[in-house]
Amino acid sequence: MSTRLANGGRLLNKGRALEFTFNGKRMTGVEGDTLASALLANDQMMVGRSFKYHRPRGIVASGGEEPNALVGLGENGKFEPNQRVTTTELFDGLTCASQNHWPSLEFDVGAINSKLSRFLPAGFYYKMFIHPRPLWKHVYEPFIRQSAGLGKAPRDRDEDSYEHFYAFYDVVVVGGGVAGLQAAKAAGQAGAKVLVMEQTPHWGGRAPVDGGEVDGLSVDRFVEQSVSELHAMENVTLRTRMMGAAVYDHGYVMGYERVNDHQPDAKGPRHRLWRIRAGQIVTATGAIERPLSFAGNDIPGVMLASAVRDYAVDYGVSVGDRTVVVTNNDDAYRTAITLKNLGLEVPVIVDARPSGGGPLAGEAVALGIRVENGKGIAKVKGGKRVEGVEICTQAGEGAALETIKCEAVAMSGGWSPVVHLWSHCGGKLLWDDENVMFRPDGDKAPTGAEGERFVIPAGSADGCLDLASVLDNADAAGKAAAQATGHTPGKGAAPQAQPETMTPIQAVWMMPQGASYKLRMKAWLDYQNDVKVSDIQLAAREGFESVEHAKRYTTLGMATDQGKLSNINGLAILSDALSQGIPQTGTTTFRPPYTPISMSSIAGEARNETFQPIRKTPMHSWHEANGAHWEPVGAWRRPYCFQKPGESVHDAVNREIKQTRDSLGLLDASTLGKIIVKGPDAGKFMDMLYTNMMSTLKPGRCRYGLMCNENGFLMDDGVVARLDEDTFLCHTTTGGADNIHGHMEEWLQTEWWDWKVYTANVTEQFAQVGVVGPKSRKVLQKLTDDDISNDALTFMGWTEITLKGGLPARVFRISFAGELSFELAVPASHGRALWDMLMQAGAEFGVTPYGTEAMHVMRAEKGFIMIGDETDGTVIPQDLGMDWAISKKKEDYLGKRAQQRSHMTDPTRWKLVGLETLDGSTLPDGAYATADGTNANGQRNVQGRVTSTYHSPTLGRGIAMGLVLNGPDRMGDVLDFPKVDGTVIKAKIVDPVFYDKNGEKQNV
Amino acid sequence: MLILTCPCCGVTAEETEFHGGGEAHVTRFGPGSSEDDFHGYLFEKVNPKGVHFERWRHNNGCGKWFHAARCTVTLEVFGTYSAQTTEPPQDIKDKISAKRPGWSWREFA
Amino acid sequence: MSEAVSALKGASFDGFVTVKDTGLHGMITLRGDLASDAVKAAVQDATGAPVPGQREVSGADGNWVAWMSPDELLLIVAYDAAPQIEADLRKALSGSHHLVANVSDARAVFRLSGSATGLREAIAKLCPVDMTPGAFGPGQFRRTRMAQIPAALWMPTDDSLHVICFRSVADYAFNLLKGAAAPGSEVGLFS
């Protein structure tokens, strides 16, 4: 059984016990434990079931590469699925539960898949569930969804907070092992501004576990000393619990800091995502040990040799009393030696190399450990935990020579440098045949903004496997990074460690070499996605020869661990099946993040109230307090209508329209864009921007104008007021203000930069209120002593007035509703006061605030177009019968040339008309008018579509506008508009002006 | 994510402060131009693999437009310069020549 | 006349730094040839401060001139003084091509104060700007992005920082700054 040892545990504070629960079972760990070490200390060998076959699975690794041991962590608003126990620090009161089983971890129905595994090979789902098609939706998909999936999605809102942080460094060192620390020291001493981040809570990485001496100090002491030296440097920042998640273009590094995962009740954010710009990035990310592919290599108790060693040394945890070590390299001997020295039994070291290992092997033999060279494991015996192994000849087919009882198997298939961050932004790899690994190709580094190399690998991440060369390499990396960022590195030598003699690794991709199919289909490559040696071989036979295809077909490396343990082994199996070398087969692409990071950390502050900016007018709080039913318009919130208690939205809209037309309505029009265009060339510029002639507009007058883009299509409209001889005020649509201001500046800066014109976007300077209805002048006259009579302020005029109390205001006499109406603009800081004044003064007229829907209906009753309804980016003014707004005198305006293109002048372009339903009902939005016959696709031909449609309370019937083939020439024709329910609405083509055709009401 | 230096305000900032505006040095054709010229102006933008000249706006900054010369393959930025010009300045062209001998882009080289 | 009110009416929040809506300021957009004597003199007369250099802010204590772009300044003055200054500027610049607009009501201004390192940290959570002392400090004026909105920053003193944004998003900006200054979320970087 796995248990806590009396001695050892360099990272533990055994004085402080921590309580936690796993699947409701109370357990105890100590401070310094990971959840993994604590589970093992409690003999919890089995921690989950696999994805596809629901096989019992235990902890395999001791770091972020762990594929099996994922749990649902926490509860309710703190629940998060798929958390790796190896990277979860234990805290008092932690609760977690295993995943992917039903009804219980010990007894699981889905494990039947395992019995059927012979019938569930790679591509099974693709092959099986494709026919008959109708079964997919109702039978197959629900079944697959039920049985697949890892953790459950959280049900409650996340209680925690998250944030981003922007930081800038000369050199960012990813990894706080001996390599990272040494690189940071070298760069820091040269004067570079350095950040060094370590994903665990501890500095030093794995070197202290392996031991050795540096400059006469134990590795532990050397790490301590390096950290204190770095702390003393003002130009160096050290952060633990922070993973280098990603490297992107131009030195952009993503640092994922788990601020409070280990202290969930502490204040502050749970995670902080550092968005870092680095001059140079040193990836001191270490290496990951590879599993060996033998039958039963997934049974709980089979672990990476380094992990077995880590648990013993770092956490004082023994995975089993009897541990068989199986390897193809010297490093795993350290595990055997460590265990033996702790008083545990190592019945045998199985070394696949015929001539065995080097000095470390000698040391093991001297300790009395049996070593079997040229041997392999035929299969592991056991179900929910390891019971023993069958040993065989590595060169054979798996005939058992001997069965050895054991509780754990420590395996080592060699080491793979963590090249992920090197590769994220295009760093290339080369295959190192001698060390059997992909490592960074120093000649093909990622390049940055200046074309410079900006990533430097260091230590094991660069393929160095012994302490002496790691330090050398990392020191050089730190110096190179400092140099590249304009600093002068010191000339001092790297710290010295004793070089080690190692017997070369031997590539072992399958164990034994001639394993039978039966063995191969129990030899796991990808633990998390249940991909076996036999699956990759099948994929190759079926023609999925590209590594990218084989990966997708078998799902190798596509789980949340992204194949950290499986990719190289799978690649080797594929290469072997294709009888080609590993470099010829190539690797799959390493994509960020290195290990999964929380979605919330990516969102950062963008949640709840700060999910997105919501623009509010100065009158927003009044609207909010008075029943506003909101409509988003751009980033603004505008009242759609103001609902009274018990009133429906539809009724509110009708009431607002009726009251406005009968007496007086108020519209908060503050959101309309307001842009000042000024200068000696302002008139010339305005004539280019608008289809109309604007330069002839007189100061004091307003003109409605259309704006097109160079494609000729309508992009915005609004009323232009001429403020003085060289100043115009352009009103734009609510959503268009920023775009139109940008559009103006673009032309001024990039095309007509010699024109003397300045613009300023003053949208937010003014609160604007539409005072609309027959009583509008009356109410306005109550507020000012200035003359606003029909003679003094004629239709389409504007003037400055002073409101009683002294507030200056601009009044524009314009109308979008077809009634007598005025728009009042005051400084935004007085907006609410103006609104209150108007409400008070209007009380005797039954003043009614109205929203955007009433505004829309009233403009449609008048046949006024709305950008975004009548236009969709493909409509030109001529389509809308607005030739009157297009100057014939101007030689040029934006869009003029495009409107001369043959397609634009095609007489069959659909044109704007009014539509009146025969039965008075309201046409559906966007409905099409059908025509005779069908098109090439067998669809009904169409001859028009609805662009705006409303129930008009004024007329008591449905009204609509639409674009119709030859529409203006077909007044009185009746069109068919089929609805989705199959019925048809008939509508007559009419003039689009439904209300007050002569415009008498607005001109009184 | 790119880093660009705005030549108008001098800031070196990340891409989120900027907004791309497509190909630079496009000649406007208006009324009176031929169908081909106008079509070319509106629709035939180059999208080269390698050296490219683009328009950018510092929209979360000084609001000014400028031009950038960069490599679409490596994302190397050769330089940024004023938008008030009809062709890339000589020093930018020289810099590109030094790094990408034999380059050409439209009529420029 | 009705009382002018800022978007958040002086709201304040105490986190590891204090965030406060500073209320109304007079603000005037001035576009023109910043190198011209006319502009230099007009700006000096209006504010007592010189035309600042590229990305700089001149002046002090509520009378600032901020460099917005190569042809634009933002004059920050007392709210009540703005209309007169606007008129004076127009008059002074009448002989040259220029644009002067009173935009005193278009924006919101927040003041961060308290811990000198803390206010740098709070901003570094929201803006892609190097907030290290030495990289940014008093005298500089930086227009940038704050989370999802445009904003500008300047530091009147070593231990205070002003953030300016559009009025309509004042609520959003205030919520952002409150979150960034939340107690317990100190980063501990610039100390």
TrEMBL record, chain A:
Keyword Hydrolase: no
Keyword Aminoacyl-tRNA synthetase: no
Pfam families: Fer2_4 (PF13510), GCV_T (PF01571), GCV_T_C (PF08669), Pyr_redox_2 (PF07992), SO_alpha_A3 (PF17806)
Ranges for domain Aminomethyltransferase C-terminal: 911-996
One example GO MF annotation: sarcosine oxidase activity
Annotated ranges, domain FAD/NAD(P)-binding: 169-420
Residues of the signal peptide: none
Family: Belongs to the GcvT family.
Descriptive protein name: Sarcosine oxidase subunit alpha family protein
Organism: Roseovarius gahaiensis
Automatic annotation (TrEMBL), chain B:
Stored Gene3D superfamilies: Folate-binding superfamily
Pfam families cross-referenced by the UniProt entry: SoxD (PF04267)
Source organism superkingdom: Bacteria
GO molecular function ontology, one term from the record: sarcosine oxidase activity
GO biological process, one term: tetrahydrofolate metabolic process
Family annotation (InterPro entries): SoxD, SoxD_sf
Designated name of the protein: Sarcosine oxidase subunit delta
Organism: Roseovarius gahaiensis
UniProtKB/TrEMBL annotation, chain C:
Pfam family, one: SoxG
InterPro entries per record: SoxG, TrmE/GcvT-like
Transmembrane segments: none
Highest rank taxon of the organism: Bacteria
Protein name, per record: Sarcosine oxidase subunit gamma
Organism field: Roseovarius gahaiensis
